[in-house]
Amino acid sequence: MRNIADDRVHLTREHAFELLRQMTRIRRFEEKCAELYTQEKIRGFLHLYIGEEANAVGVISTLSEDEAIVATYREHGHALVRGLPMNEVMAEMFGKAAGSSRGRGGSMHIFSARHRFFGGNAIVAGGLPLAVGLALADKMVGIERATCCFFGEGAAAEGEFHESLNLAALWHLPVLFVCENNLYAMGTALARSQSNPSISERAAVYGIESEAVDGMNVVDVEAAARRAVHAVRRGEGPRFIEAMTYRFRAHSMFDPDLYREKAEIEEWKKRDPIMLFADWALSAGILHQDDRQEIEAGVAQEIDAAVAFAEAADWEPVEDLVKDVISPPETVP
Amino acid sequence: MTTRRMTYREAVREALRESLTRDKRVFLMGEDVNRYGGAYACSLGLPAEFGDERIRDAPLSESAFVGAGIGAALGGMRPIVEIMTINFSLLALDQIVNSAATLRHMSGGQFSVPIVIRMATGAGRQLAAQHSHSLEGWYGHIPGIRVLAPATVADARGMLWPALMNPDPVVIMEHATLYNEEDELPTEGDMSVDIGKAAKRREGADATVIAHSACVKKALDAADMLASEGINCEVIDLRILRPLDDETIIASVRKTHRAIIVDEAWRSGSLAAEISSRITEQAFYDLDAPVARVCGAEVPIPYPRHLELAALPQPQSIAAAVRKAMRR
Ligand SMILES: Cc1ncc(C[n+]2csc(CCOP(=O)(O)OP(=O)(O)O)c2C)c(N)n1
Asked: What residue stretches are annotated with the Transketolase-like pyrimidine-binding domain (chain B) (predicted)?
């Protein structure tokens, strides 16, 4: 476990470099996925995270490797920052057997037991009870660590959101809830879907200490996540972060994006988390122009390799169709 | 009679428009039905005609808005509630099973729940397990509701109004792969269809193939393949999954002496199992071969194309089952 005592973000050159590199990896990876989608290499639903990168990067950089993450169908970014190899994630997008879920899940269902990455869940709010349970397990066994659950603001209208928050608070469980509030649940704007548009206020009603942060600012997100994760680890019960963010692309590749103004999107793009952070780090002299180029070059290489890997990977044989529905007979007592 | 071409999606939309126009008590409620235009674009354009009150965006809260629909029906309205896909309908299953389906009986016949619940179902679009399941059989299991599965553009157009006029809860399953299907429909006249009867989609003497929803087309394709081999299949489209139209099914089996049931859902405990039982109960001595079933593989639907195809009934697998029943 890395140094957990310190609540402050230390923006060393190395750390800033890593924050920018991770955000860039997500951005470029997804741009590539959009391109591969038009080439029909990737099919089904594809939900891009472009614009929201600061949240996955800011939060996950505060977690230790053994702290579980539960995510949604918009989880490529979370998976990549958590450390799932890009090759495996890309192969999963293709549906190849070398994918992180053997190709069975595709874009919406990325899992990795070895990274304690528990999805990849396409049922809105379906992950919240799972996170509560993972935290319950830790608490019962006496392991002091946080479980982190990502979800959108749309999930806050579901019963499972309220039921989960209640349980987590009631049982004082070590969960960090991270609501990525991008203002739209598919085409339904926040004001059309939530009686009280402040999701963090609603979390607070359950007695959970909650904070809203600028989700376009990776440093703000990290600072809030640090405070929250440390409190959770110290056994102070669940914490809730509402990250105010925006998705620059449509909900999915099927979405004609008719429900919001182009001008609104352009306005938010001025707050592009990657651009803002890079500009700031450059002007503060923490990073140099060379660093940016080095990052872009490295990421481009990683993506090329991942695409080549996914292209070359095998399809799962049809004979294995009903494999992994239940455990193999020899493991059943 | 003049006709016009329309898609299944347009047929659903026109049926919605007709219902909203004919009866002021009718309203459509669901996630993204208004601003977004409906997840499958069925309600696209309707808000401009009928307003935000009657094309009502609901938050992500399946249990609450389906339950509210049931309450509105009790309160005298005629709600059409759209659930994005059958997978998500599980969040509302409590309201459907424990309230909608039971209220008439539990209240000694005092209350009706005239609600229509529409949902998309089925696999075939590489959306992986959480967006692809066929749980029609689960709904078919429940007394107190009527379950419809329009397999054709005409049925998509014609089932909604009679469903709304039905005093009991009606669940309509629209297969997600059918929305782009096209067909000719009459330009005018009453489009309503009989929501009590199965339909014979093809006459034949050698074997009865029983299917519903997207599998009807696959059964017809199989029948075409077999016709060139001299095997004439009769194809029955169930259309109504509850209550099942035993009469049409049994009459056909008595004529052809062979039954092959096609069901995209898993075989275990399926609608296909129920139909098979009914055939053996009612027409055992008329059979020249065991009742056969072509069902979905017992696996959550996988994402890759080749595995998804392998998991679902296909014309080839249906034809093979018919040949086997014919001992060919
Ligand atoms: C229970 C359930 N209902 C409906 C859907 C369809 N659906 C998928 S994503 C989505 C919008 C969710 O919005 P939000 O929670 O804000 O997350 P975002 O997509 O903005 O990241 C909807 C309605 C679903 N997947 N699950």
From this structure: 6-181
